[in-house]
């Protein structure tokens, strides 16, 4: 494991391979190990692949309270500056995709390409805000176990057993205070539609065909907003196509990388 001290916290990260940089941002309530199939594949294919634990997750510092998306984006920018990476292809899944959109809003000049996987561009609804705050309270009160058990087979399709075991471990091991802080931050996220319309770099939108959290319709909306973007629907996957169907996911990413 490598660590860096940036923005007043310690960030754990993987940095493998050489070449142009591909940076991958995990979702909630996961950690950087969700990107292991992509780190291994693309580092062997001539890319420098960087995957970090977001603050509050994995081996990074847990900061209780509320973590807005701009804070996550600032951490990513600071880590990459620390690593000497000025421009990069940036990808994220679910909450990670929303962080990628925030990065596109705040430092578009550093981006060479974007991957938006199983994510949602609109601001949170009032009902959604209440639900996120209630879930944050529950995680702090009960821990991760009950939530992780309840949502596992929505995160991954039931037939994807190996991916389910990996996702279950990540969710059960997530620090409740970090996960709760992220939930509260996402409750206040903006609508990224205007940001999507301003994207000028090659962009891949990818989604699992069976995703209940961010259905194909949400991915189609993002593709419609980002000029020239491509949409890939991964059959037989739910919310985690990079783990459920890594070969199909990596093929789509490779096609995007060839354009950057």
TrEMBL record:
Pfam families: Abhydrolase_6 (PF12697)
Keywords: Hydrolase
Domain (AB hydrolase-1) ranges: 22-251
rRNA-binding in keyword set: no
InterPro entries reported in the protein's UniProt record: AB_hydrolase_1, AB_hydrolase_fold, AB_hydrolase_sf, Epox_hydrolase-like
Source organism phylogeny: Bacteria, Bacillati, Actinomycetota, Actinomycetes, Pseudonocardiales
UniProt-recorded Gene Ontology molecular function terms: hydrolase activity
Entry's transmembrane regions: none
Protein name, per record: Alpha/beta hydrolase
């Amino acid at each position: 494991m490598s660590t860096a001290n940036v923005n007043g916290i310690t960030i754990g990260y993987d940095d493998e391979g050489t070449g142009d940089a591909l940076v991958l941002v995990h979702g909630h309530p996961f950690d950087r190990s969700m990107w292991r199939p992509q780190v291994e594949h693309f580092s062997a294919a001539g890319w420098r692949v960087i995957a970090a634990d977001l603050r509050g997750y994995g081996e990074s510092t847990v900061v209780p309270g509320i973590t807005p998306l701009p804070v996550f984006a600032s951490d990513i920018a600071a880590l990459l500056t620390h690593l000497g990476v000025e421009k990069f292809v940036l990808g994220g899944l679910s909450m990670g995709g929303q962080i990628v959109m925030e990065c596109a809003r705040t430092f578009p000049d550093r981006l060479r390409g974007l991957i938006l996987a199983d994510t949602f561009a609109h601001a949170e609804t009032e009902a959604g805000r209440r639900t996120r705050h209630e879930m944050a309270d529950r995680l702090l009160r009960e821990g991760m176990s009950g939530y992780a058990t309840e949502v596992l087979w929505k995160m991954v399709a039931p037939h994807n057993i190996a991916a389910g075991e990996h996702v279950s471990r990540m969710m059960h091991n997530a620090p409740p205070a970090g996960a709760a802080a992220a939930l509260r931050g996402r409750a206040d996220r903006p609508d990224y539609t205007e940001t999507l319309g301003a994207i000028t770099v090659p962009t891949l939108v990818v989604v699992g065909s069976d995703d209940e959290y961010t259905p194909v319709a949400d991915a189609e909306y993002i593709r419609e907003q980002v000029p020239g973007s491509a949409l890939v629907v991964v059959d037989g996957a739910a919310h985690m196509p990079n783990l459920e169907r890594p070969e199909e996911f990596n093929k789509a990413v490779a096609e995007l990388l060839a354009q950057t």
